[in-house]
Amino acid sequence: MKKIDKKIIIAIDGGPGVGKSSVSDIIARDLGIVHIDTGAMFRGLSYYFIKNNIELTEENVIDNLPKINVVLKYDNNVTSVILNGEDITPYIRKEEVSKAASFVSKIKEVRKKLLDLQREMAKNQSVILDGQDIGTVVFPDADFKFFFTADIEKRAKKRTEDLIKKGENVTYESVKKALEQRELENKTRKEAPIKKADDAIEFDTTKYEKEQTAKIILDMILERIDKA
């Protein structure tokens, strides 16, 4: 573990499946800081509607927001997603949850609710956050900003393998199509569309394993940390 003596905020943005979360986990562990997986928060909120068989409409989402409490528990380098007191971490990576999260993320009231929670979690501690608007909206003054990209074929293959391991009946073609659709929706949504911050470092993760990517990014951070 590399000890840091100052409070810092690291932002990693990018589209679905580019490795943001897994790389952030490694960096958080190596620096001894907290990883805030904002995508997991959207997924956790979305799972509420799936679990309770509530139709996903904008009106239903807004009406139910006061009943939903999503928090991240970070313990022993592992992030758990807690929905109204229940650990739902094993369920949030399902494809139906991904689709639901893409829908709710377009809603202004949802983004406001989670943005406030994210800022509160980062108020008094060093954190690394991954998402789609961290460097542009949530923490535009983050000390370090990165924007990940990756080849769609590699992302689809990895995502397909992960889902099949979890017992889901999916094909490479269906997963690739879903990823492309989610990315289009994320880029064109009205509320906080995904885009690279002007001062973010762009990094293509296609040719690297997550450990390699994490080392490269971590080296960049440590090289510049005295200037942050």
Could you please describe the fold and organization of this structure?
There is one protein chain. The chain is α/β, with parallel strands linked by helices. The chain has one domain (9-204): P-loop containing nucleotide triphosphate hydrolases (Rossmann fold), CATH 3.40.50. It contains nine helices and eight strands. The strands form two sheets. It has a five-stranded parallel sheet with strand order 2-6-1-7-8. Strand 3 (70-75) and strand 4 (78-83) form a beta hairpin. Helix 1 crosses helix 9 and helix 2 crosses helix 4. The radius of gyration is 17 Å and the shape is globular. The two termini are 20 Å apart.
Q: Termini separation (Å)?
A: 20 Å
CATH architecture: 3-Layer(aba) Sandwich
Number of domains: 1
- Residue stretches low in confidence (pLDDT < 50, at least 5 long) are none
The spatial strand order of the largest sheet comes to 2-6-1-7-8
CATH topology annotation: Rossmann fold
Structural class: alpha/beta
Question: Can you tell me the CATH superfamily?
Answer: P-loop containing nucleotide triphosphate hydrolases
Query: Which term fits the overall shape?
Result: globular
Counted by DSSP, the helix tally is 9
| CATH top level class name | Alpha Beta
Helical fraction equals 40-55%
Oligomer: single chain
Average pLDDT for all residues: 92
Q: Could you tell me the strand content as a percent range? A: 15-25%
